[in-house]
Fold each of these.
Amino acid sequence: MSPPPEIPPLKRPVTSLWGVGAERAAQLVRLDILAVEDLLLHRPRRYEDRRHFRAIAELTRDEAATARGRIVAQGLKRFRGGTKSVFEFVLDDGTARLHCRWWNLPFLEKYFAVGDEVFVFGKLVETKPRTLDHPETEVIEGGEEGFIHINRIAPIYPLTEGLPQRWLRGLIWRTLGRFESQIVEPKPAPDLKDFPARANAVRMIHFPEELIDVEMARRRLALDEFIALQCEMRLRRTKFEANSRALPCGGDNHLMKPVLAQLGFKLTNAQTSVLREIRADLGGTHPMRRLLQGDVGSGKTVVAACTALMTLESGFNVALMAPTEILAEQHFQNLARGFDPLGLRVQLQTGSRKTVEHREAGIESQSRPAPSTLFIGTHALFASGFDLPRLGLVVIDEQHKFGVAQREQLVRKGNYPHLLVMTATPIPRTLGLTLYGDLDVSVIDEMPAGRGHVKTFVRKADKLPKVWEFIRKKIAAGRQAYVVYPRVEEQDTANDIKAVTREFANVQRSLAPFRAGLLHGRLKGREKEGVMTAFRANQIQVLVATALIEVGLDLPNATVMLIENAERFGLAQLHQLRGRIGRGAHESFCILISSARTDEARERLRVLEETTDGFCISEADLKLRGPGELLGQRQSGLPRFRFGSLTEDLDLIRRARELAAQSPRGVPEKI
């Protein structure tokens, strides 16, 4: 029996390092540090230039700074009952004294002693006496490693309870000295003459000679992350194409021509161009994997319908998945109206409704559907008991509402069906090149003719009486309106956030005698369907709802959108909600009511006043809130980057894509 292969040095567990016992290893695990390479890639969150200190007498309320002094007094004070306390020490550097205090952390008393020399970092909360609350601290100790911590630019790392900053910095210094020679360039090594070597970049990120070194090192390590991701996606795409053969779904136009003839309008040049790309995919060698981006109202549903018709013409079935029952129902009604006269079957499958219960007699049961069937539904489409025979095409509408695993689950219902994923939330270029880099991308960058202009206004809550008066005038003229709130029910912890169930009565009073309907996610399916049917028929003039309506609803007569607590929504989500209006020929109005208290929050909302370009808005949202918030918690495909930034590194992502395309061997080896 051959001996087990030796573990590469950088893959060894941190317990193999001197000084890392079980307790320290458990603390490092909480920081996602399990192996030596994890430790060497543990990124400092900031740096202190300990070659220069601020005298205590010069500390201010305006700027955080590092000071150094000796503890001359300390003590712990407990308040009645012993449940509250404050620990405080007084630091003296010869220029002044500084009070450092921590509330309800009595155990800190054992970490400090009178006579200790200490670094402190923070911003004054009081000037008489000079006081820091909960500052970062580090006791200065003598010994051989003192040069690691003082008289240099010192890294400050993310920590966990019980793990000292000084101990972690010393461990990384020793580990780097031992293993730096093991840090090699990725293979195949790209030509990166304008970047530092990888091993040098790792040293610079921890112990820079100058602060300018930090950004140079970060960019090199970020580029390595992006290259590895791009190579991985290329490898996955290569394997996919090697193991799959496309179903012939290009069609022959015998269904599409009559459908397009009855539309009553001509497709835009952008729609026509995208359909050419899709037809080439459907008739190609490998299954289509395409992302279709288009701003709200740009006509993606028509493109999806035409794509479905090509597949149905070829004798295969189609599955269209929507994130909500309301949107699935709307797709069902609209597409059935055009497809039924051609003898095509359109079936609905949601958690609360199946068309076998509602369509006319004579339609086959769902266990034996007719050939050339378009199945429309929600998550119910990939329920284990629901069969999708001869599946040629999967269309995912508003794909950012689904996780990657859900998307793959539906695709596996067939034998490598074609895949079209659509989004009306324009994806910033950095996200598009990372999260969706394995998909071909089409963009509808042209709006259909005849759409009304949408004006957006941000108003404070005290303007609501005038807003209600404005909405009443529009409804009296025959139009309809949406009123949106961020929550279904009120919560005690945030009484300033309005809830739709509580505000519904207020809307009814404000807009009487016009009728209002209530819509939110906790209603039963039939209740939602009844409200939407009445709203479509103008039996209800005002739809009072949560953000449930943000995707897909298409009612040309609705021309006013009022959103309260607008600061509680992301920009991309507000843009989606605004997209529910402006779908007819009438001028439309989006009114954002906000009680935003910060300049940043007010600045966010002004972006919507200034532009209706979804791509500009998504870029702003990415910078303001980050990729996780923009995509939503359900999007599980976002990679974790230690050094790369999806808000700032577009140039690196593009370069990584080019370098990955030159790589003949796929995924580079990591350190």
Amino acid sequence: MLNRRSTRLLAAAAAALVLAACASTKLMSSWRNPQYTGPAMKKVAVFVMVKDDNLRRFAEDQMVQNMPPGAVAVASHRLFDRLEEDHEKVMGRLVKDGFDGVLVSRLVALDKSQTYVPPQTYVTPVAVPAPVVAPYPYYGRFYGYYGPGLATAYTTTTAPGYTVDNTTAVVETMLYRVPDDLPVWSGTTKTLNPQSKPEMIQAIADLVESELIKQRLVGTPAR
């Protein structure tokens, strides 16, 4: 019985540690240009700067789907077959197509680290025997109380310490005004132990959408 309980406790502790290491995406910083006093942008081009073309298309489409209400957003892969290196060509196309803003996301850091989890001690109760049937209370004498007391004593089990490998992805997203390239907003997100790229991208898109709505920079601001 003791071994089973100890095993269950250790398994529960391990599961809690695994859940603690699961992916979590948070907004680290949000900056708005105090010099920008213009209206909310209505037509925004979305660029995600990654070499993997399939990942780029997926990420841009997710960002487009998460644009604030009232905005027309277009993924860059629908404007250019590949990431165009000629800035003037890109800007010329955006101006020609009537864009007044451009949203750009890129990975700025991918850090790996280790976290040491110290040994954990768990308290496990010993099985309690059936009460003693007697013509007088079993605790009437010191021994009568002391014996069952031993039966309900607790024992301890210690799990050894170990290290957990962590990966942190930092993504920066910038909003610029077209055609003068004025930086209007910047947001930096941090994802701890991303389990999958799609999940991380969706989480980032949700955070960016919330900030753009909050800052009233894109779409139709709520009254």
Amino acid sequence: MIHPVPPGTRDVLPDEMRELRALSLRLHAVFERAGYGEVWTPAIEYEDVLRRGDESPPEAGLRLFDDRGQVLVMRSDATIPIARLVADHYGGVPAPLRLCYFAHAYRSVERGSGRAREFLQGGVELIGVPGAKGDAEVIALAIDALGEAGLRRHRVGLGDGMLYRTLLDATEVPEAQRRPLLEALWRRDLVALEARIDALGLARPARELLVTLPTLRGGPDVLARINASVGAALDNLREVYELLAERGAADRLIFDLGLLRELGYYTGTIFEVYDPAVAFALGGGGRYDGLLGRFGEPRPACGAGLDVQRVHLAQLEEERTAGEGAA
């Protein structure tokens, strides 16, 4: 390349841009039919405002100063800015609120990591519908949107963001030792996780609980293999599964009890979307009942975000493999 661009960014040329635009329109049509109105938030926000939502936002390394010396941050996800938007513009408006968005997000990445510094997200936020009913609506909408986009093999990994944290409480892991365990878990580094657990010197039953949970993945039967101390989370996961089964989407679900998302504001059900045609997650989301109250009126909420460019790559790979099969 004659003139380099920053690591994790790239140019998009007309053919690909037409396909990305068409894909975004398909996704938006699904969201709009479900009653989700589109919103737009600034690409830059005051850092202290975003930190209300998450004290350590993921890889939010792109900062600058305004003419008054205040620190501005490029948004690293869409949910926290929308929580701020709801507090600013929808105070006192009765629930539910159904909002969708299409916007770029920005994260700091290491050179040579192959990860995107700038990426296009399309997603939904459901404000004011608590529990499994809201979770199932959002997950079903993500599944439907990907089907409308042309994917046929996509699956949803379903877990709960409080499962492992509840086990840490039950096994009395010291507070200072918990963050390294959680970081290893969201990175899916089970080797590092086990090594850190062994270093704690826990009793054997506690150690087995913390090592085993992240390996549990499969159908509804895996829920029977979990310690009773996380019963409330299990009941909610069963209800989400039943509601999605009523919608005909149960065949898309895989329980993944070691699933943990990087963002710290999740308070319940979490999920990630996959396609076996590609080796990366296409998006995900979950319940964040505590987030809205950090900006204004407390409200239950759940959301989903899709990486539009990754979905596009999954489209292309599904078409390629289907073509090879036909040949």
